[in-house]
Amino acid sequence: MNRKLSRRHFTLGVASLTGMGHAYAQSTTSPAPQPAKPTSRTICFVGGYTKHGPPGGAGNGEGIAVFEMSRENGSLTPITTFTDIASPSFITLSKDHRFLYALSEISDFNKDGDGSVTAFAVDRSTGSLKKLNVVSSGGAVPAHLSIHHSGRYVLVANYMGGCVAVLPIRSDGSLGEATDVIHNTGPRQPERASDNPEGNFAVSDHSGSHPHMIHSDPSGRFVLADDAGLDRVYVWTLDLTTGKLKPAKKPYYDMLPGSAPRHFEFDRTGKILYNLCEQDSKVIVSTFDPSVGSITNLQSVSTVTSHFRGSTLAAEILISASGKFVYASNRLGDSLAVFKIADDGTLTLEDEVWMHADYGRAMMFDPSGEYLFCANQRSDAVTSFKVDKANGRLSFTENFTAVGSPTTFAFMNTEI
After folding, report:
1. Mean pLDDT across the stretch 286-298?
2. Bridge partners (DSSP) listed for residue 290
3. DSSP three-state, residue 321
4. Per the CB 3.0–4.6 Å rule, which of 104, 151, 301, 399 could disulfide with 116?
5. 313 near 354, Cβ under 8 Å?
């Protein structure tokens, strides 16, 4: 017997079937794909002057500030700050990023008036620092340190101490007392160079020896130091067993009097040396013979354009990962110079970029080479620039990061 369905029963039946169909569709459809989680992140360490220095005035920094860098836009997000250190104005990481070494640009570490160097263990997953030990830098007011190519020694340039020192790295990453300290001597040099930019009233301290940088050449056979007070580049060999420095066949090379050689970079072959002179804002391009450690000058080129007039002091020099471009920072003039490298290693000034801040000192690329960061000491800020790897040009990211009296960087990629 047929039974007539009411409209209500029919509607309920259709709704039930529709719901079952929807439920079935949901149960058989693959879940929406989820965005892949990043497997690493980029950590940036920033050091600078604290209330303990620099000589002549206190800084605004708190210690070593730790940030995470955005790979999308070059911005820095604060993570933490390690405050138990005085004026870490230069820092460097070991090749495996397990250890960080920071100098303290002070002159009151011990009764001898030395500065100090602190060794840290690095937590590679978080970027946090654990202090291992603190040792004398071997002289007053250290300005630069580096790790020897062998990974067995930290090399220190003591600016006011007029000396360089060698510190052994122990198996646990901590530092031993200096195995060698060498004091430089030489005649008094003028405060300004003869090839000064027009209207430059800035001077460099030439009252005596002022080592400003020390680093091994890429082969590790030689150790070079820029002495900004004596206007010389010193060259030694390092005995890896004793930790002693021995003068090379020619122990030093005279630069232009008053020019104040400050920082240098080697090209990837180790045969071209780019030396930045602070006082006259020049890059001296030289050949370097890695078999004997000899230096032969090829070119002197200004870090400011021909239309520049006024006071300036060059600060930092870098080479791009591609080996095609050189970058230099100018304090007072507040500019970044971009040079193109020719096949013979000589330079052509391609661009001059405003730092967007005051007294830019250290510069550093992030690990990818996509961004260039500048530490602007008097603006208490870090600025970043996007790098065009094809032509070397820099574009301001409009990112400012507040850091008190910043002067130095170190970057690393971490595993999450």
Report:
1. 97
2. none
3. coil
4. 104
5. no
